[in-house]
Specification:
Length: 236
Amino acid sequence: MQRLRLAETLPVGLTVWQLPLDLEAPIADEDYRLLSQTERQRACRFRHHADVVRAVTTRAALRRLLSAQTGMAPEKLVFSENAYGKPLLKSANGLAFNVSHAGGYALIALATCGQVGVDIERRRPEAELASLSDLILSPSERRYHDSGRSALPFIERWVVKEAVLKALGLGIADHLQALSIASFLGQPDTYYLDHSLPVSLPLQAWPLPAPYGYAAALGYVDTEPRGCHCTRLSGG
């Protein structure tokens, strides 16, 4: 598992790990033992072995990272969900997390202050994604894409929206079109977000370094914009 190098302009307390997945390997016993009974049952419902590997390996890695930050044994951590299914850590003391996986990679993001979301997707030709434009793009984004003047690839807009909405803990499909993504002129390491979402908190998003053939983004919601005393996360 590799800790990604993030831009120094990001808020203190945000960290992201990249986890390569061997989708043909057997499930590691030490990973499986860390999971709760509910997590094991959920993983066993997958029909394909690769999906089981993603579920078990990523969840075990998440438990180990959270254990290192909380001091609790990884198998003792207890999770809950909000109304939209976003996983939360009970007794987290301000520690937030989010997970995404696609293909042979997973991303795990942690935040000691605010809420965090992360997304990774495999890149595909724009023509293959055209059928999704009405679902994902806002009206202003569709105008740019239809005219061929869009500065951002479709897949990049997609991962940013998913990351931001996951940070907010909202239903993703219901709000994709309410969020527009643009790049800051001269600032390639951050995005400009325009939205009509039912929130008043500051939203931020950044591109993440991703393996070849993938796109990834990090979303962040500052839940205490008047001053949040974040702490730096440990870990390699």
